[in-house]
Amino acid sequence: MKLHEYQSKLIFAKYGIPIPKGRVAATAQEARHIAEELGGRVVIKSQVLVGGRGKAGGIKLAKNPEEAEQLATQILEMEIKSLPVRKVLVDEAAAIESEIYFSITNDRAKKKPVMIASSAGGIEIEEVAAQTPEKIIQIHIDPLLGLRDYQARDLAASIDLPRDHWKEFGRIAQALWQIYHETDATLAEINPLVITKEKKLLALDGKMIIDDNALFRHPDLAEMRDLDEEAPEETTARKYGLSYIKLDGNIGCMVNGAGLAMTSMDIVKLFGGEPANFLDIGGGASHEKVAAAMRIILSDPNVRAILLNIFGGITRCDEVARGILAAMDEVKPKIPMVVRLVGTNAEEGRKLLADAKMITAETLADAAKKAVAAVGKTASTRIPVMQESVVPVGAPPAKNHQKNRSVR
Amino acid sequence: MKLHEYQSKLIFAKYGIPIPKGRVAATAQEARHIAEELGGRVVIKSQVLVGGRGKAGGIKLAKNPEEAEQLATQILEMEIKSLPVRKVLVDEAAAIESEIYFSITNDRAKKKPVMIASSAGGIEIEEVAAQTPEKIIQIHIDPLLGLRDYQARDLAASIDLPRDHWKEFGRIAQALWQIYHETDATLAEINPLVITKEKKLLALDGKMIIDDNALFRHPDLAEMRDLDEEAPEETTARKYGLSYIKLDGNIGCMVNGAGLAMTSMDIVKLFGGEPANFLDIGGGASHEKVAAAMRIILSDPNVRAILLNIFGGITRCDEVARGILAAMDEVKPKIPMVVRLVGTNAEEGRKLLADAKMITAETLADAAKKAVAAVGKTASTRIPVMQESVVPVGAPPAKNHQKNRSVR
Amino acid sequence: MSILVNRNTRVLVQGITGNEGLFHSEQMIQYGTQVAAGVTPGKGGEWVLGGKIPVFDSVKLAMEATGVNTSVIFVPARFAADAMFEATDAGIPLIVCITEGVPVQDMMQVRNYLDQKKVRLVGPNCPGLLTPGESKVGIIPGNIASAGNIGVVSRSGTLTYEVLYALALAGMGASTCVGIGGDPINGTNFIDVLELFEHDPQTEKIVLIGEIGGTDEDRAAEYIAANLTKPVVAFIAGQTAPPGKRMGHAGAIIEGSAGTAADKIKALESAGVKIAKHPEEIPLLLK
Amino acid sequence: MSILVNRNTRVLVQGITGNEGLFHSEQMIQYGTQVAAGVTPGKGGEWVLGGKIPVFDSVKLAMEATGVNTSVIFVPARFAADAMFEATDAGIPLIVCITEGVPVQDMMQVRNYLDQKKVRLVGPNCPGLLTPGESKVGIIPGNIASAGNIGVVSRSGTLTYEVLYALALAGMGASTCVGIGGDPINGTNFIDVLELFEHDPQTEKIVLIGEIGGTDEDRAAEYIAANLTKPVVAFIAGQTAPPGKRMGHAGAIIEGSAGTAADKIKALESAGVKIAKHPEEIPLLLK
Q: CB–CB of B364 and D214 under 8 A?
């Protein structure tokens, strides 16, 4: 779960990392009030959960409260990568002397947290990493021991941080480690961490991602989730423990297991079709879950056929079959459905579905071919079931919305 | 540093360990007020930093506020093992079904924290350990990993705790671990942890000892030190970084290093004398420290001679010599002083002392013999220098006060 | 022969009284696996599955009483790390964690601790192990695979079943199938299993099933090129998946642009591995 | 021959710019020890002791530049654990920590971590090591000891000097003197050093100096009885000390009534060790 910049920085401040004075605003008037309180120049920063805000014009400097209001109005009317801006952060402008990149994240290859820093901080850091990797320093942290002070010092020395700042950098590093560890973050990033003209360290921007699997122990963080920032069908999917990502094709896929779901998509494509989504119903899917999954797939108006591929293991095919029947009973889809059930209780599942009007398949390739063929044949428009009840007014058009999401 | 029961229990409560309702009182009237607030029967418990309070009559049950006042008056007039009672804890009386012993401490042989529990809790636990050691369960904790939940469960199972209490016991165990770890305790003990008639777990008594070496990171705990509970000369000694323990003999000893200090005492005894104290001036003793040490030794009216044995390593003999001269200048002791200096800068040290009226010695045995002989000769009474300024009015007689202290 | 599990494997089921634990314990027993005991704290002394399997309060007690040598974990995600620590400290040499959704920082601690203790972990978030005809430890449906000479190793769950099924339909069997799980931090990896297969006389050919994300397949490719004499066929899922979610700049720095199916396929091909376009093509490439 | 340190020992001083670090670095150099570098974070690039010894910001940098093989730590107690972790992670095989007052929970973490990494620690709160005529690593005054065939191991600080001095006055010399320190949790213990002396050809006889508290001397006695062929003379300090502070009931449970000088002397005597009544008696018992 991604946190907004302003949420991340509030957490930073709680752990003692210095951040600029500032507050979040939902309206231009609020932004003006904050600018008045702060006095002097302020930065107006769009709060959206995508990168590249600056390049898109979502970050502006205002010389006075009037200009702050003006710019906030502009920014609050923007869409950045299809995401409408709903909030701006109004921060005191800092006098920057130099910019440092600093983060802690997981290194899956080394099975350890890694602390990353560079003297070449700022928005071009990825280019720095690609062009001059020697400017990026990585220090791994023993997960049982935690960050040692000497490691923070080594990092400071390695990025040639002036010695006057070592102690403060050490405190910030320990705070960032505590944040990373105590919030179950998979990323805690400060970019840039600036040295100001007043020779202070200041976290100008912050980004945090929390491990979804660990949210059960962080109810306070779970509440920070910004539902405005994700597609409504993804919200519904999460509620039911499903994993759903919308794509641009017309064959809806419902599969158990991420690997098999991806494989099903791959085969649809291999035989000339286009998958409309990734949808993993997970292990041990109950029939409520299956029904929810079907409603989500059908909420996409592009879908012309559904491919159901269930290989029973933890998931029992009879339970899935019951879910399919319940969902069909409720939503009465008018498009072709290709079903393939194999594995645990497959026989019982197939029996349950015997009377429903469905296309059955034996192998995965066979199922994909039949789904592709079905789309070719069907020309009937169908009622976009559930869509009205799922998509709130003012939500972004679903189509391009989550293009850069992935299955992992 | 030992904490009082009431201090320990306040820490317990902060970490979520259930304790009886109650508060500490310094007067009988206060005790009555607390008893009135609590209603019902209360327990009046003397707060002194020694064991065996119960057997000494320092813990009493009161049926009503009047009786609470009466008993508090009695207890506040007591001395327990020479320590006057200055405070009582007034706790709601619990209806006890059974008593558990539960603690976390250091196991120096295994180099790990150890969690200890027994179903035979209460004041006889040491006897249980001696007579029926199989009733005492020990589980070691990996200091890098911390207490695992399964270990708390194993402990609960091993002491045959009824299953209904396992979850609560697990929470208490994790809390006690956090307390032990976060306060740098060397002991965090609940004895007894009771199961009440209402089937709740309740920490009826608590004891904590904090690692003196770690107090630098716990200023809040360091403030909890009860100076009333230690000999004033020990307070002074700690202030100067000295380690001092009063004994019953008449030869004052001032030595650098605990092992050598004990050895000096042993040799004094071997040659027929009686050491008046253990005093380790530590490594790298400055002359202020040495002067303070001498004043502390001379504050004991029994002292008839002083044995100074300094073997220079980190400690430099010339610096010690300067300390001796400064102290002599100030306190002008009238008793014989036997001095032996060897090691780092011993030559310079001896030169500095050449003009002072002192008995010098080459070997440790020689020094001890001379000190014993000097006591035999001296009959002069001496002015008990510093004593008035060091010992506050109302302090306990120093003599028997700290009999059961040791050098480690 | 086979690897990791065989007819002598004596299994402990941690979380045996839960829905999944109970269902799959029964499936394992039906398959012929020696399920010797279960653990559910607070339920020690009970017997489950028709009174055949004793339940203990702790792994230690279960081990003392029944001498198990493998543990399979079905406990909920929030208790999974503790279950792995418990099994490790009790001295179980092989732990198979089926549970999905274990927090990644828990897994980093577990993995680092287990490495110290030289314990082998398979999973978490994995389907477990199957040596057809001998033993099944986990949730792989037993009826879809037959014994043979193909070693199967997979990061995936149900996709693994798909492959076993395709092999069986083609008249081929598996020596052992190892589902290593797809979590970012797990125990046994591709290389560990490839090494075991290379030294297993029964295994003649190997199937490797990978996914997008991470660099495990790339490192497996290097290992294959340098150490393996037995032929390997691979399938990589996720060729049509959109590019991965980036973990901020840090993810880009740590993992670079690696992790796409195309990259992995390229790496494996240069190691001499044949790549299947879809699972049902695997048996053809094995011939 | 000798144990642990000799003329090839190249020493790094952690905390070299502090008072104690600087003073004792000079003493070590004067003794002939190869002091190759120092570390004080934030002072890298400086030179100390007449411009002869370079100071680095970290142990890693110092090691890369100077190839030290032993580190001696003089940093304040609150930084000592970090210094030991740093030296360990940098790959220093022998760490000698002079610092006293290190919190005991810090030491439990350090000790458990170092054991994983197979690093040898001497101390903390110890006087260090001396191989007379070759190398001194720590704070033992060099001029009080001469080279010889007596191995000395001690939990004490200045008491160790007393013993070395008594040996020298009696015309005896030490092969190596090891001060293991008296803290409740430390690195190298009596048994480790006894084993090294047993296998050191130069060492013919051994002196063991113990104290009240703990059970290290008792375990050393068992080890001596079972494994040692060389004669051992011991002195135990604290015969007149009052009984130890008890760590509540827990202390009594963990350590029982053990730890008195009388107990330790009894244990050592039954292992065939001669007990000196005071340090100056040791040379007589060695004859």
A: no
